[in-house]
């Protein structure tokens, strides 16, 4: 009995067990098998497998809304991306360059080919496929933290920020909303809190946390928050040990009814994750549970290092003042990663840690595990962590030595991927960038669902490199 004589439901069952690359090859075997691609359930299962088995983020959140043709296109596009990313030297499929205003921070809206850029007083949205600005907002003294944005499933991006005349001042908290549900009419709006009634401590590197309910940040002694209502006041909640002395302010994530604070601090041996009870003011009014009944929880994890031959010398040379911090990334561990951190070692090598996390749905809490560590032999200049934390794109360069060949310190683009199976491990590949220039970079962002890397230089020249 040949394969083509099998009942179609049995062939569908076979196809459902295949990874996307094998499925595409399977569908090309013959006409009978090729007809399986007309079944919507085949592509729904294939895309679900991409997400849950291959742990590859998808460019769409609600598969049920897609037509058969859209499901097929999304699956085949993701298959091409995975094949390229798994090759020894992933190659770009196309490169687009255009100009924006200089000194802009930027973020890709996952799965859309839209890019949001911001500087003091302005925020813009660009369509990378057409190199056109599609929405723009100007607001005096607006200062956004664009990398801390929150993507809403219905087609909106919320961006946290403040209104302040200087680097340290803060009159109001604000949230900017980019609404891209109608791609023909993208809009940017904003909501501003009431003005603060007293001077609040604001550290220039304080990290905002944001979800659909609340915007806030931590100071050394308190948690500052606002319920995203223009009539709402800024609330101050005293919290001991929010930030241990002589450490940077933490990267924070609000999940359920707790605020999780990642402290890398000055220690070379461990990190701490503090979990404190926290409800937005609107929730406290209807919640009978008192914060005092829910104690803070502290999780301390070891900070491992890769087996560099000169590790001991690097750690001796390492000091808090000489060590540069890349911006830490925290996210809800939908793909098993709570945080990604990157640390320079004596400005010659770099270490990236992936911090696994999991969701306890019964308790509505997060739990954490020791990190998976990757050591990079060169200096990492800037990183961009994908939305789900399993991919990291970065620009790096070799630190010249007396024996270095001319041009050895030229910047290059790297891609690091974390996989939890069969055991936690990382895979590094140097990305081919074609004729794109990485010199004089100012900012970097990365959309892992579309295989899109965006580099901006300090003159406002933007280069979008696609790998799908």
UniProtKB/TrEMBL annotation:
InterPro entries: F-box-like_dom_sf (IPR036047), F-box_dom (IPR001810)
Taxonomy of the source species: Eukaryota, Fungi, Dikarya, Basidiomycota, Agaricomycotina
Organism name: Mycena metata
Full protein name: F-box domain-containing protein
Positions of the F-box domain: 1-46
């Amino acid at each position: 009995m040949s394969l083509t004589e099998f009942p179609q439901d049995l062939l569908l069952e076979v196809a459902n067990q295949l990874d996307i690359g094998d499925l595409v090859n399977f569908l090309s075997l013959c006409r009978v098998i090729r007809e399986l691609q007309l079944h919507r359930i085949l592509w729904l299962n294939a895309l679900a497998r991409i997400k849950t088995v291959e742990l590859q983020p998808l460019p769409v959140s609600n598969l049920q809304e897609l037509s058969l043709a859209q499901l097929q296109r999304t699956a085949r596009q993701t298959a091409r991306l995975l094949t390229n990313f798994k090759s020894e030297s992933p190659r770009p499929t196309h490169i687009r360059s255009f100009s924006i205003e200089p000194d802009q921070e930027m973020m890709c809206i996952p799965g859309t080919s839209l890019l949001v850029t911001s500087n003091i007083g302005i925020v813009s949205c660009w369509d990378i496929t057409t190199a056109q600005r599609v929405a723009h907002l100007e607001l005096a003294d607006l200062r956004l933290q664009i990398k801390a944005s929150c993507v809403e499933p219905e087609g909106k991006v919320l961006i946290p920020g403040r209104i302040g005349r200087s680097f340290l001042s803060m009159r109001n908290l604000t949230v900017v909303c980019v609404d891209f549900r109608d791609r023909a009419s993208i809009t940017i709006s904003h909501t501003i809190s009431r003005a603060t009634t007293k001077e609040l401590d604001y550290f220039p590197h304080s990290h905002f946390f944001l979800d659909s309910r609340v915007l806030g940040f931590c100071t050394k002694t308190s948690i500052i928050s606002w319920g995203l209502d223009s009539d709402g006041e800024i609330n101050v909640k005293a919290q001991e040990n929010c930030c241990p002395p002589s450490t940077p302010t933490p990267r924070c994530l609000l999940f359920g009814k707790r605020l999780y604070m990642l402290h890398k601090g000055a220690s070379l041996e461990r990190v701490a994750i503090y979990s404190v009870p926290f409800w937005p003011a609107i929730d406290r009014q209807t919640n009978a549970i008192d914060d005092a009944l829910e104690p803070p929880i502290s999780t301390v994890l070891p900070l491992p290092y890769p087996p560099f031959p000169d590790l001991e010398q690097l750690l001796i040379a390492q000091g808090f003042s000489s060590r540069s911090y890349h911006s830490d990334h925290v996210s809800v561990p939908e793909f098993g990663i709570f945080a990604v951190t990157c640390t320079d070692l004596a400005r010659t090598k770099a270490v990236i840690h992936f911090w696994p996390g999991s969701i306890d749905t019964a308790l509505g809490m997060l739990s954490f595990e020791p990190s998976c560590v990757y050591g990079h032999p060169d200096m990492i200049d800037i990183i961009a962590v994908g939305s789900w934390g399993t991919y990291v794109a970065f620009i790096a360069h070799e630190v010249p030595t007396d024996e270095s060949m001319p041009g050895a310190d030229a910047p290059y683009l790297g891609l690091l991927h974390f996989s939890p199976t069969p055991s936690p491990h990382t895979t590094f590949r140097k990305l081919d960038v074609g004729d794109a220039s990485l010199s004089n970079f100012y900012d970097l962002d990365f959309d892992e669902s579309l295989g899109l890397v965006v580099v901006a230089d300090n003159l406002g020249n933007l280069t979008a490199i696609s790998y799908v």
